[in-house]
Amino acid sequence: MTTLTRPATRRRPTSPARRTGGRTGVAWTGLAWLAGLLFFLPVLWMVLTGFKREVDAASNPPSWFFTPVLDGYRQVFDRDLTPYLLNSLMASLLSTLLVLLLATPAAYALSIRPVAKWRDVLFFFISTKMLPAVAALLPIYLLVKELGMLDNVWTMVVLYTAMNLPLAVWMMRSFLLEVPSALIEAAAMDGASLTVTIRRILLPIVAPGLAATALICFIFSWNEFFFAVNLTATRAGTSPIFLVGFITSEGLFLARLCAAATIVSLPVVLAGWIAQKQLVRGLSMGAVK
Amino acid sequence: MTQTVTVGAGAARRRTVRSVPAGARQRWTRRAPLLPALIFAILVTQIPFLVTLYLSTLDWNALRPGRRAFVGLANYGEVLTDARLRAALLNTVVLTAGSVVLSVLLGLGLAILLDRRFPGRGVVRTLLITPFLVMPMAAALLWKHAIYNPSYGLINGVVGGSTDWVSRYPMLSVVTTLVWQWTPFMMLIILAGLQSQSLETLEAARVDGAGPWQTFTRVTLPYLRPYLELGALLGSIYLVQTFDAVFTITQGGPGTATTNLPYEIYLTTFRKFEYGEAAAAGVVVVIGTIVVATFALRVISSLFRMEDAR
Fold it and tell me: How far does the CA of residue B172 sit from the closest CA of chain A (Å)?
């Protein structure tokens, strides 16, 4: 299998041997909680600041206790955040859909019924992920400009599809490899057609894999900034572009900024929290289960 | 995005030409599901690179319309002797290596902490992965304005003083933000490694009289090696392209102190409009990446020990 998980004789998702008791246990718990809270502190600070009045947000020393207000959020929506969120949603969802449509058959041809040079193809895909996006920026910009597609959501859909395609091919391949080959052979023996095999055998088994792949592609598209800032403006701008627009404004803006940052981060944070298990496998392109 | 490292594509073509027609048909039905993705990837990632190659031979500044001439390799001469680009290369190495090494080390520590059972482990895990999920642009803005700010930032609010963190320690400011975002990623991969380690091995080490530290350095660490390598490799692939943090926190400054290659080429393209030079710099970066990537691909292929085709 394409995996780093070794055939452990006994897995220990919850290991009784590693439960530490007594004073060491308390210290361990304390240390782990401290680390967790420390890493979470900036996020907590962002959320808190979003509910402050601008004066409180810019106070020194920082105020931990305050009456929460919704001014920041109100101002964010007054400045028309919604179209940016919709652009982000459209670019992310459509590109994720397109990636899955392209990557799943490709992964099939690289795992279950592999082409002769499947290894080379696999490495070609991953190597497209390694080369710097910045080297492609200028030609893409000129090409997109020539086609009159600047500041167009569809341009972002195409670029995000290319960006996530290698990731999805590798992930889907790792999921397809988990389908027992005996099952596929049995289906062929029973004279099942390809569509039936796919619908009845492959899809049910790889459905969680499809979901995990979709999640990862969605996260990377939603968060993408480099192409968005160079190829979009007001019409097709995605949510990170909205955030950048804040900085030019005069005066105190910290509460507003934090409110906006919280809103645009929320979809991915929630999705990631819910799908923690799939996250590891997705981020390692299927190598770690 | 642009890419060229293909292994043995020529060999594949040769075989196709010589093959018997009957087998050829079957081979094409095998290839059919692959083709849309492959063609799409080639179109969107390889064509721009060819265009970059062409553009790199032009003297073309978009601010001076009408003057667009073929200059051969002159842009390359300029790029290779450019002090700014050399500084950017060095900054890229420092930024990438610094962030990767620190986040792997921190990730290892956190993974070890989370490998034991303790009350609220699930909650702590959830708290720890959150920085990775926050939008990078949001994270960069948050750190710059709410945390590093000299007059109302969180750091000075807690420790006192009025240090301007970003201008005093520009590189460290950027690296800290990146490490904060990428440590959870490393932790998740390393934790998966720790949890796949068999209990028998650890027990055997204990029976043989190894202390906890010895068990860790002699048994666990060697076992974790592929996970550490995988984390470092994937982290490098993403971090070498860092743009959001530099763009937001330091704008590459002060001077060129934190200008990395992506940001420098971005400046050449969209601030100076030196299209020819930007293209040449892009080509140089791509060639450098191919060299590094060839090595990285070898690591990947040893990491993903791949089974043979079924």
Answer: 17
Domains of chain A: 27-74 (no CATH), 82-283 (1.10.3720.10)
Instruction: State yes or no: ipTM above 0.95.
Output: no
Per-residue pLDDT tens for B131-172?
999 999 999 999 998 899 888 888 888 888 888 889 899 999
Which pLDDT score, from 0 to 100, does residue B305 have? 58
Which residue, B265, B75, B46, is CA-closest to A138? B265
| Chain A residues with CB-CB distance to B4 below 8 A | 127, 131
Question: What are the residue ranges of helices labelled H in B1-34?
Answer: 9-18, 21-31
Per-residue pLDDT, averaged over B281-307, amounts to 75
Structure tokens that stand for A274 in this block: 């819910």
Q: Which residues share a beta bridge with B274? A: B61
Topology of the domain comprising B83-303 = MetI-like fold (1.10.3720)
What are the boundaries of each domain within chain B? 11-76, 83-303
Q: Do A276 and B126 touch (CB under 8 A)?
A: yes
CA–CA min distance B98, chain A (Å): 19
Size of interface A-B (CB pairs under 8 A): 391
**Pair of tokens at residue A264:** 């645009």
- A-chain residues near B289 (CB < 8 A): 130-132
pTM: 0.85
